[in-house]
Design brief:
Belongs to the short-chain dehydrogenases/reductases (SDR) family. Residues 205-379 form the Ketoreductase domain. It holds the Pfam family adh_short_C2. The protein is α/β, with parallel strands linked by helices and 442 residues long. It has helices at 4-9, 12-21, 82-92, 117-136, 155-161, 215-226, 240-250, 264-271, 296-319, 335-339, 345-369, 384-387, 391-399, 409-420, and strands at residues 43-49, 71-78, 104-109, 142-148, 173-176, 206-210, 230-235, 253-256, 276-281, 323-332, 372-378, 431-434. It folds into 2 domains: 31-177, NAD(P)-binding Rossmann-like Domain (Rossmann fold), CATH 3.40.50; 183-434, NAD(P)-binding Rossmann-like Domain (Rossmann fold, 3-Layer(aba) Sandwich), CATH 3.40.50.720. It is built from 14 helices and 12 strands. Helix 5 (155-161) links the parallel strand 4 (142-148) and strand 5 (173-176). Helix 8 crosses helix 9.
């Protein structure tokens, strides 16, 4: 369903009226397209504190001065005390007004030093700073923080956050680990792909997306295929026709399978004898009802699809070796699992469980199997399901974020594709909200 309010505020009368009434004024977001694959304008590099960070291998064109930057990258890795924290203000204060509409601000921080509580305090302060700036910057611009342990690992993450692909990702903190933990499958002996990565970084890799016959899952499958992956479109047998339609359009294959059956992992492994590189757990259902009115079957069905099947399938595919080294697992959580939502105790529990899975499994999966585990946590995304929500609740869901609008399925898909990238091997155990910086669940 079209966002008529967003369209109205894009007109001269709409801008005048909403400004006079103090109503939200969302800006149309600039998303990736083949015609406009990058933000138009300079990427401005600023520094706060003393830093020897070398970003020459990140595949970014950066400049030290610009009158109208499309993006600002602030290196604050050298901020170690309150005095140098003032340099964050000094660096950004003069340039923020000049950042283009739908522009990007990315702050680079350092991991918190457990042996230096002054450094830990001011580096943690950067989180409050970026989240607050994201809520005030406006005009479709986003602000994110990257805690960077190794500049060699920064490429894929910075390319994503400084591009139109991250249009609905704001107010997030992403930790990028050391390069030494990355596992390569491209002959780089554990190192990264070249920083000037191809436009099809998933070429030669096989990706399976559950619940991919429609909605967000279909968008994920489309985006992974765009990036070069051979996509397996998995959905329940009742949706086999739609799954085949999607697979045929993308040059992939369809797999009709109920992900909740006990042997789902075994059947996936049998269908993919050559192995799997990317596993996207997208299948999910809702059965909303307040707990006092919720039948037991509504509880168990949601937990089985959204969480138990994810656990069983992941375990089976790791144990069988179907997920190859250098593989990626991306699970779908939700801000409902982070902030809670009335009438969704079952759904919130299942999605919080996905977060727990990611945080526990990620270090072991990387160490034992060379596989990363991350999650995306969508907020209000414009789908057929949200279109059925009553008008006033739907409008509240759209406006209660820093960008004052709903996201699109492609926003979740682009974030998934970044986490699936071979160059994202140092991004592990992260839960990235795709919610326009929702005012809930921060």
């Amino acid at each position: 369903m079209a966002d008529r309010y967003l369209s109205f505020t894009g007109t001269a009368p709409g801008r005048f009226l909403t400004r006079r009434l103090g109503l939200p004024q969302p800006a149309a977001l600039r998303r990736w397209s083949p015609e406009h694959p990058a933000l138009k304008g300079d990427r401005l590099l600023l520094t706060a504190g003393k830093s020897d960070l070398d970003l020459s291998g990140a595949g970014l064109e950066l400049t030290s001065s610009s009158d109208r930057p499309a993006a600002v990258l602030l290196d604050a890795t050298g901020v170690r005390d309150v005095e140098t924290l003032a340099e964050v203000h000094a660096a950004l204060h003069p340039v923020l007004r000049s950042v283009a509409d739908s522009g990007r601000v990315v702050v680079l921080g350092a991991p918190l030093d457990p042996a230096d509580h002054h450094q830990a305090a001011v580096q943690q302060a950067l989180e409050g700073f970026t989240r607050s700036l994201g809520k005030e910057i406006g005009r479709g611009r986003t602000v994110n923080l990257v805690r960077l342990a190794d500049a060699r690992a920064a490429g894929s993450t910075l390319r994503f956050l400084l591009s139109p692909k991250s249009a609905y990702v704001s107010g997030q903190v992403v930790e990028v680990g050391p390069a030494d933990g990355m596992d390569g499958t491209d002959g780089t002996d554990g190192a990264f792909p070249a920083a000037n990565a191809t436009d099809r970084p998933l070429t030669g890799r096989t990706a399976l997306v559950t619940g991919a016959a429609r909605g967000i899952g279909e968008a994920v499958a489309e985006t992974l295929a765009r990036d070069g992956a051979r996509v397996v479109v998995l959905d329940v047998p009742q949706a086999e026709q739609d799954a085949r339609r999607v697979a045929d359009r993308l040059g992939g294959t369809a797999l009709a399978l109920d992900i909740t059956v006990p042997d789902a992992g075994t059947r996936i492994a049998e269908a993919l004898p050559d192995g799997l590189d990317v596993l996207v757990h997208n299948a999910g259902i809702t059965r909303d009802r307040r707990l006092v009115n919720m039948p037991a079957e509504h509880w168990s069905s949601v937990l089985d699809v959204n969480l138990a099947s994810v656990l069983r399938t992941t375990d089976a595919l790791l144990a069988s070796g179907t997920l190859r080294r250098g593989g990626r697992i991306v699970a779908t959580a939700s801000i409902a699992g982070l902030a809670g939502n009335a009438g969704q105790t079952n759904y919130g529990a299942s999605k919080a469980g996905v977060v727990g899975l990611v945080r526990s499994l990620a270090p072991r999966a990387l160490a034992e199997h060379g596989v990363t585990v991350n999650a995306v946590a969508p907020g209000f995304i414009e789908t057929k399901m949200t279109a059925a929500i009553p008008l006033f609740i739907r409008e509240a869901g759209r406006r209660m974020n820093s960008l004052a609008q709903g996201g699109l399925p492609v926003d979740v898909a682009e974030t998934t594709a970044w986490l699936a990238d071979l160059g994202s091997g140092a991004v592990n155990g992260q839960v990235v909200r795709v919610c326009g910086q929702s005012l809930l669940g921060a």
